Amino acid sequence: MHSRRLFLKNALLAGAAVLTGADRWRHWLPLPEDMNDSSVRWPAVIATWDNRKATAAAGAILSAGGRALDAVEAGARVAEADPNDTSVGYGGLPDRDGNVTLDACIMDEFGNAGSVTYLQHIKHPISVARRVMEKTPHVILSGDGALEFALSEGFSKENLLTDEARRAWEAWKIKSEYKPVINSERHDTIGIIAIDAQRRLSGACSTSGMAFKMRGRVGDSPIIGAGLFVDNEVGAATATGLGELVLKTLGTFLIVEEMRRGKHPQKAVEIAIRRIAQKYPKHARENQVGYIALDRRGRHGAFSLQPGFNYALFQGGQNRVFEAASLWKR
Ligand code: GLY
User: Fold this and answer.
1) Is the pTM of this model over 0.85?
2) CA gap 133, 312 in Å, rounded
3) For residue 207, which atom of ligand 1 is closest to its CA?
């Protein structure tokens, strides 16, 4: 019934020569509103891994009627400030030369985007990414340029290498084995997406990247369409895990486009994980990637290559953690 209605609607519009450009596409593509489901599931916020402290901070903003953009920034900042989170911000494991280098990006409900790559010495790369989005004509600032910009915006320079991260690096140096580890410590990049009471969608993604990576390596997290993508007309998605696999398949862009075609977020994330397995079967067997997605109805999806990926969801006043389904069962 649903697809027949859509077909009729599309056929009608295809014949209507009056619609041009962006308007034509806006009407042609099936939107989640076309689904036969009237339940209200917003505001909501979802984050990769057991980042319940982050979803709680974001959820408090949403519950007070705040903007999704502020909520996702606040959530990402919780993980960035946590020294026990060794893959994000302060306390993040360094590259193989001992430098903590951070990647982050943010997108708002208008499709505006800001990003920093290879940023050093700044505890909250997500907030610098937001300033890039709001205060510059650019999308990405990198390395020393990103640092200079952050300092000019009043951020302070800090030592981000904790004693614990330094010890881990020194232990790693004994063998210097350059190999990613699946679900090391069961967490990784924070990706967080939210829909607020006014149905504005936003997302943020922040990481210190792969532990002991090559100097200069940038992952998927600061790349729009790879680590994060938001389209307010459709939904949003974000990624965690081995960035190289996400980059080569533009996973979050793919997920949002699948939702645009009418797929439920769960189906959309499964398609993106299967795409990795289909294109890079060997790497897909040996590594972890996890995706989460949220659509304009507040429906969510989560899926990973390997078992062990979980996510935090704040919705309907509850803040809970769930285990995601995975492609491989091990
Ligand atoms: N997903 C984080 C990274 O690969 O850098």
Assistant:
1) yes
2) 26
3) 2
Give the residue extent of every domain in the chain: 39-326
The two three-digit tokens of residue 298, written as one number? 């507040």
The domain over range 39-326 is classified in CATH as 3.30.2350.10: no
What distance in Å separates the CA atoms of residue 77 and residue 286, rounded to the nearest whole number? 31
Average pLDDT, the chain: 88
222 CA distance to ligand 1 middle (Å): 9
Whether the predicted pLDDT of 19 surpasses 50: no
Pocket of ligand 1, beta carbon within 6 A: 189, 207, 209-210, 219-221, 240-243
Tokens 């494991």 belong to 93
Give residue 228 CA to ligand 1 midpoint distance, Å: 11
Q: Which residue owns the Cα nearest ligand 1 atom 5? A: 209
How many whole angstroms separate alpha carbon 300 and alpha carbon 237? Answer: 9
- Cα distance from N-terminal residue to C-terminal residue, the chain: 39
Helix (H, G, I), strand (E, B) or coil at 211: coil
- Cβ pair 230, 202 in contact under 8 A: yes
pLDDT at 239: 98
Which residues are the active-site residues? Answer: 189
Look at strands 300-304 and 325-326 and give their pairing: parallel
Tokens representing 143? 């390395």
Contacts of 246 (CB under 8 A, 6+ apart): 219, 220, 226, 227, 239, 252, 276, 289
Residue 80 has pLDDT above 50, yes or no: yes
Ligand 1 pocket check: which of 118, 182, 221, 276 to mutate, most ligand atoms within 8 Å of Cβ?
Answer: 221
Q: How far is CA 125 from the centre of its chain?
A: 14
Distance CA 131, CA 105 (A): 11
Other residues' Cβ atoms within 10 Å of the Cβ of residue 108: 24
Write out the two tokens for 133.
């989005």
- In this structure, the number of other CB atoms found within 10 A of the CB of residue 270 comes to 20
